[in-house]
């Protein structure tokens, strides 16, 4: 298929809007640097792309062999644009006082979102690689901010280099697996390798592909980069990496599993099961001994990605549509919870001083009760406490695991959830302790007003869909792949 008319471009409108936003912002920066204008242009463009996605939500189109626009991809394009807009808003007060050039950060954020949109729309390895590398290369720069102010975040340049080197190695492994698939089949579509051919040589290619994907998702044993990069990066960059950086990749994984029926191959389910158990147990156990908030959330994300892998495995043994719904719901819930947790930390921090140690949050309830309430809700949701979106998501995962009879994986999930409850409540306990000494949290000004509004919306989403999830479930059921 080739693009022959303007109508063929309509399904790509969200992607075109975000691309135009980056170009316009770049031109504006070239004329004159104004941080407020760069932020406003980026945020406006992302919201415009989200609105365009919502308007086009029921349309479907195969845009060349590389990209498919259906309700599944549109749902996560909408999530990508809204999440990126929220991170852009939360980033504004964080970098506001940074004595350095700040406009490029928003250019990188827009480029990373372009990569995420391409990824969630991919049904071909070429578009997958383009999306992954666009997202990854933008994140290298975002992680390195602020380059000339080393007191703001610990070793941002070191974190960026670590992510660059290890991410490039993972991409090379994934690319080599894709090259072997092409050598075997002569095609780069996700459907190129039928299940009947998943033997010997072909199985090795799939394992190489999964290894590269596991790195991007920071699944054990490919997780070693995660805590160091999260700790070294500034909080807004860490939040982008923890949310869209992982959600976009998992969306592609689910589409690939559905298109290729890869789980029917002998050995693949066994490898994924080992990865899931290691991720859940190691992620939660290593989080227990951390004092740094970003490292705790890093190990927590490893465990949460392991939970989602369990639902993917369950699709091979039970109703695949239910498993697909469980994966999609949990990804949305994880995005909300993680964004809210990093958002609170970003609001009290700044580019001059980050509060990234658990002890820093002692007495937050007495000094900033609203922020403490939001942070507590996010942590309880990550732990899977009822009346939160995290509880509904975890219930979904447990249900499909029981239906599939995955008792070993279910036991790992129960143990991991119990361990996780401890280190999440440890942070809540610190916030409830009497304050000690003078507060050094960043004093909120007018530049923080929109950040508080974003946190309020996230808080309402977390509680609203935790108490009454039916509307979100209906949208997910309509967009499910299986």
- Low-pLDDT stretches are none
Provide the domain count: 1
Q: Beta fraction of the residues?
A: under 5%
Reading the helices and strands in chain order gives HHEEHHHHHHHHHHHHHHHHH
Rg of Cα set: 21 Å
Separate helix tally:
19
Mean pLDDT: 87
Query: Can you give the helix content as a percent range?
Result: over 70%
Oligomer: single chain
- State the strand order across the main sheet: 1-2
User: What is the terminal separation in angstroms?
Assistant: 25 Å
Largest sheet entry = 2 strands, antiparallel
User: How many strand elements?
Assistant: 2
The shape is: globular
Structural class: mainly alpha
Characterization of this structure:
With 482 residues, this protein is mainly α. It has one domain. It is built from 19 helices and 2 strands. It has helices at 13-31, 35-55, 71-95, 103-120, 125-144, 156-185, 201-216, 226-232, 235-242, 244-260, 268-288, 293-314, 320-348, 364-367, 369-383, 389-404, 407-432, 449-467, 470-479; strands spanning 61-63, 67-69. A two-stranded antiparallel sheet has the order 1-2. The chain is globular. The two termini are 25 Å apart. The mean pLDDT is 87.
């Amino acid at each position: 298929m080739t693009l022959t008319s303007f109508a063929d471009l309509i399904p790509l409108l969200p992607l075109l809007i975000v691309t135009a936003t980056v170009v316009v912002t770049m031109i504006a920066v070239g004329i004159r640097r104004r941080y407020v204008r760069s932020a406003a242009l980026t945020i406006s463009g992302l919201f415009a792309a989200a609105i365009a996605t919502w308007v086009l939500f029921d349309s479907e189109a195969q845009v060349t062999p590389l990209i498919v626009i259906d309700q599944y991809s549109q749902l996560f394009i909408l999530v990508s644009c809204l999440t990126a807009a929220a991170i852009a808003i939360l980033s504004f007060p964080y970098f506001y006082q940074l004595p350095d050039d700040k406009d490029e950060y928003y250019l990188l954020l827009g480029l990373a979102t372009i990569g995420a949109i391409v990824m969630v729309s991919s049904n071909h390895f070429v578009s997958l690689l383009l999306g992954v590398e666009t997202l990854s290369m933008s994140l290298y720069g975002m992680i390195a901010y602020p380059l000339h102010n080393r007191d703001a975040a610990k070793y941002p340049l070191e974190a960026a280099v670590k992510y660059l080197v290890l991410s490039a190695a993972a991409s090379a492994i994934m690319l080599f697996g894709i090259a072997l698939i092409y050598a075997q089949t002569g095609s780069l579509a996700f459907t190129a390798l039928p299940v009947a051919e998943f033997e010997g040589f072909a199985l090795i290619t799939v394992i190489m592909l999964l290894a590269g994907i596991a790195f991007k998702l920071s699944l054990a044993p490919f997780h070693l980069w995660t805590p160091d990069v999260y700790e070294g990066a500034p909080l807004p960059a860490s939040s982008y990496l923890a949310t869209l950086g992982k959600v976009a990749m998992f969306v592609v994984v689910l589409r690939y599993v559905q298109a290729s029926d890869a789980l029917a191959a002998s050995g693949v389910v066994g490898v994924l099961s080992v990865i899931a158990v290691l991720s859940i147990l190691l992620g939660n156990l290593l989080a227990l001994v951390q004092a740094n908030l970003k490292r705790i959330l890093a190990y927590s994300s490893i465990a949460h990605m392991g939970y989602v892998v369990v639902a993917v495995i369950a699709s091979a043994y039970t109703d695949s549509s239910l498993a697909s719904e469980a994966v999609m719901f949990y990804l949305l819930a994880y995005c909300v919870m993680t964004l809210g947790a990093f958002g609170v930390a970003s609001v009290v921090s700044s580019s001059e001083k980050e509060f990234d140690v658990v002890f820093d949050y002692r007495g937050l309830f007495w000094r900033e009760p609203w922020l403490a309430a939001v942070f507590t809700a996010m942590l309880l949701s990550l732990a899977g406490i009822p009346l939160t979106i995290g509880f509904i998501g975890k219930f979904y995962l447990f249900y499909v695991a029981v239906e599939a009879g995955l008792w070993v994986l279910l036991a790992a999930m129960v143990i991991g959830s119990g361990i996780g409850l401890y280190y999440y409540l440890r942070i809540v306990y610190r916030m409830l302790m009497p304050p000690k000494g003078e507060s050094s949290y960043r004093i909120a000004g007018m530049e923080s007003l929109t950040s508080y509004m974003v946190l309020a919306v996230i808080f309402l989403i977390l509680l609203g869909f935790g108490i009454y999830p039916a509307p979100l479930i209906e949208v997910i059921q309509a967009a499910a792949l299986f």
